[in-house]
Amino acid sequence: MPRAKNKVASHRRRKRILKAAKGYWGARSKVYTIAKNHVEKGLTHAYVGRKLKKRRYRSLWIVRINAAAREQGTTYSRLINALNKKHIGINRRLLADLAANQPDAFSAVVKTAFEGVTK
User: Fold this and answer.
1) d(CA 67, CA 102)
2) What Rg, from alpha-carbon coordinates, does the chain have?
3) Residue 95: partners with Cβ closer than 8 Å, 6 or more residues away
4) Which of 44, 81, 92, 112 is most deeply buried (CB count within 10 A of its CB)?
């Protein structure tokens, strides 16, 4: 009796990898063993890239908040410290958006944070 090789599952597995490798150059899109390595490497880079994206956006928000805070006569670190002491829970993404698109609202947040405190 011949050995069962499970052709259907292995064929689907290879097809899935080669489909994911579509658009790769040369053997990377045509030879299964090479395509498998490059698809896996691409997925690894995609995973890392998603983490780096969050890091880059946070640093961009901080730069924007700092620029707007300096226009108000304070710094980023002093502003965040004052917001934390007043228990004002506005995240950096929202603060950066206010600083860029609604400067009057941002100045109101700064004034609220520094009420009764010297800058």
Assistant:
1) 14
2) 26
3) 61, 65, 106, 109
4) 92
Written as six digits, the tokens of 78 are 């002093």
Q: How many residues are listed for the chain in this entry? A: 119
| Cβ atoms of 88 and 109 closer than 8 Å | yes
Straight-line distance from the first to the last Cα atom of the chain, in angstroms, rounded to the nearest whole number: 86
What type of residue is 48? V
0.85 exceeded by pTM = no
Rounded CA-CA distance 22/42 in Å is 12
pLDDT tens, 53-110? 999 999 999 999 999 999 999 999 999 999 999 998 899 999 999 999 999 999 999 9
Six-digit token pair at 54? 């969050």
Q: Are the beta carbons of 80 and 42 closer than 8 angstroms?
A: no
Q: Are 35 and 42 in contact (CB under 8 A)?
A: no
**Which residue's structure tokens are 């009796």?**
1
Contact (Cβ atoms closer than 8 angstroms) between residue 106 and residue 66: no
